[in-house]
Design a protein that fits this description.
Elements (H helix, E strand, L loop, with lengths): L3 E7 L16 E2 L2 E2 H11 L4 E6 L4 H5 L7 E4 L6 H8 L8 E6 L7 H9 L5 E7 L8 E5 L2 E6 L6 H4 L3 E10 H9 L15 H7 L4 E5 L12 H21 L3 E2 L5 E9 L4 E2 L3 E9 L4 E2 L4 E7 L4 E2 L4 E7 L4 E2 L4 E2 L3 E3 L4 E4 L2 E7 L4 E4 L2 E7 L4 E2 L4 E3 L9 E3 L4 E2 L4 E3 L2 E3 L4 E2 L4 E2 L8 E2 L23
Parallel strand pairs: 1-4, 1-6, 4-5, 7-11, 12-14, 13-15, 14-16, 15-17, 16-18, 17-19, 18-20, 19-21, 19-22, 20-23, 21-24, 22-24, 23-25, 24-26, 25-27, 26-29, 27-30, 28-31, 29-32, 30-33, 31-34, 33-35
Antiparallel strand pairs: 2-3, 6-10, 7-10, 8-9
The chain binds uridine-diphosphate-N-acetylglucosamine and magnesium ion (MG).
The site of uridine-diphosphate-N-acetylglucosamine has 27 residues, from β1, α3 and β10.
Length: about 450
């Protein structure tokens, strides 16, 4: 088989998005639309990927600097044929080219493979049947043979009734493409150089044209508006959910899952409704995620339970741990096995060793917590003096009583006990009880509570 070049057309303006951002940078599943097309292109192992960009200019290019792509600027958008002409200098003489559209994110790798297999010595186009074909190029056939693509605005009344339409995705030998492109004119209703005119040119030269029909309409749907964006987002999410279920993940409702990045799950993971996963999230075997959790860039090991309404951002959680409900793990949180983090607990840059518990209403930031530590309700590590951050160290088996403030930098020794309600400003020794409360407990007998003041009439 010949070598493969792929040209992705992405210079269009996307006027109907009503956005200052270039259309192809809007996101589907947390990834730019064009990123999905590039991923498909890469999966086909081409010699070259050439992206024709224009509107939005360098911003588009900068979003993909890490990719091995040849960027071609189409300064003026004079049509799809003109766009491919800009890529011509980069095409390999004896390769085949696959044309993809930068705004069709669900483009299917298998359909592309099928098309490429058809493109040796002929022109292969991907078509589909559209119930309302308005706006699309119509596939005109004569006794089943494709004879032309006629754009909607140039079509006759009879041609407008044709429901088989051009997806815009096509493949052909570069030798032919080069000669056809040199013959394009802009003699049509839109005054554009239409790529689709190459069909009639091929027919004139007795070069066969085949149209492969796809039934997966979403895989060829371009995004032109925020409505399209939302619809394709939903479809992408349902496809992601189906893949996860095929791998054995239990989803309480596949319609209420959002993966904006990559989610990989072990066996027997369960995800309740309305969870959002962002960036790279890995769940080990038998992980249970409660409803309404937002989890970003996290590694969650086997047998962990994340209870409802928990937020996790850039954290690692060891096996058999239980987090939430209503917990917030911020960047730099590393929990070893068998840890418990309960409701209204916020952790930031905190390393918590095996078996420790922070179960209620606490803030633990810039801290290292040893093994089997118990942190009572309402404990605060006071890590910030308004200018600088300081560290709290709590050693193995320490017990911190409720409503304690630990003024960092401070170290609580092994097996130390801190009495409830203490404000700890100095290191607390190991194996001792340390407390720091107001000295006297007073009672005022006969105390009357204040009465509500009567308002003057
Ligand atoms: C095109 C096809 C039409 C097909 C339809 C499918 C042509 C002439 N028509 O029509 O047969 O049914 O797509 O959606 O090809 N682009 C550029 N530079 C340009 C013009 C367009 O890069 O100068 C890019 C756009 O960014 C877009 C793609 O090419 O990704 C298609 O352009 P668009 O304007 O949407 O073409 P249609 O008129 O919809
Ligand atoms: Mg279009």
């Amino acid at each position: 088989m010949s070598n493969l070049n792929i040209v992705i057309l992405a210079a269009g303006k996307g006027t109907r998005m009503h956005s200052n951002q270039p259309k192809v940078l809007h996101k589907i599943g947390g990834k730019p639309i064009l990123g999905h097309v590039i991923a498909c292109a890469k999966a086909l192992n081409p010699e070259k990927i050439i992206v024709v960009y224009g509107f939005g200019g360098e911003i588009v290019r900068e979003a993909f600097l890490h990719e091995n792509i040849i960027w071609v600027n189409q300064a003026e958008q004079l049509g799809t044929g003109h766009a491919v002409q800009q890529a011509l200098p980069h095409l390999d003489v004896d390769a085949n080219t696959l044309i993809l559209l930068g705004d069709v994110p669900l483009v299917d790798v298998e359909a592309c493979k099928g098309l490429i297999a058809q493109a040796n010595n002929q022109l292969a186009i991907l078509s589909f049947i559209k119930a309302d074909p308005t706006g699309y190029g119509r596939i005109v056939r004569n006794n089943q043979l494709v004879t032309a693509i006629v754009e909607h605005k140039d079509a006759t009344e009879a041609q407008r009734k044709i429901q088989e339409v051009n997806t815009g995705i096509m493949a052909m030998p570069n030798q032919y493409l080069t000669s056809w492109l040199s013959e394009l004119t802009n003699n049509n209703a839109q005054g554009e150089y239409y790529l689709t005119d190459i069909v009639a040119l091929a027919v004139r030269q007795n070069i066969a044209v085949v149209a492969e029909m796809t039934e997966d309409e979403f895989s060829v749907t371009g995004i032109n508006s925020k409505g399209d964006l939302a619809q394709i987002e939903r479809e992408h999410q349902i496809r992601t959910a189906n893949k996860l279920m095929q791998q054995g993940v239990t989803l309480k409702d596949p319609a209420r899952l959002d993966v904006r990045g990559n989610l990989s799950c072990g066996r027997d993971s369960e995800i309740d409704v309305n969870c959002v996963f962002e960036g790279n999230v890995t769940l080990g075997d038998n992980v249970k995620i409660g409803a309404n959790c937002v989890i970003k860039n996290a590694t969650i090991k086997a047998n962990v339970q994340i209870l409802a309404f928990t937020h996790i951002d850039d954290a690692e959680i060891g096996e058999n741990s239980r987090i939430g409900p209503y917990a917030r793990l911020r960047p730099g949180t590393i929990l070893q096995n068998d840890t418990h983090v309960g409701n209204f607990v916020e952790l930031k840059n905190a390393q918590v060793d095996v078996g420790s518990k922070i179960n209620h209403l606490s803030y633990v930031g810039d801290a290292t917590i040893g093994k089997n530590v118990n942190i009572g309700a309402g404990t605060i590590t006071c890590n910030y003096d308004g200018a600088n951050k300081f560290k709290t160290v709590i050693e193995d088996e320490a017990f911190i009583g409720s409503d304690t403030q630990l003024i960092a930098p401070v170290t609580i020794g092994k097996r130390a006990t801190i009495a409830a309600g203490s404000t700890i400003t100095k290191d607390a020794p190991a194996d001792a009880l340390t407390f720091c409360r107001t000295k006297d407990q007073k009672s005022i007998m006969g105390w009357k509570r204040p009465q509500k003041l009567k308002r003057p009439d």
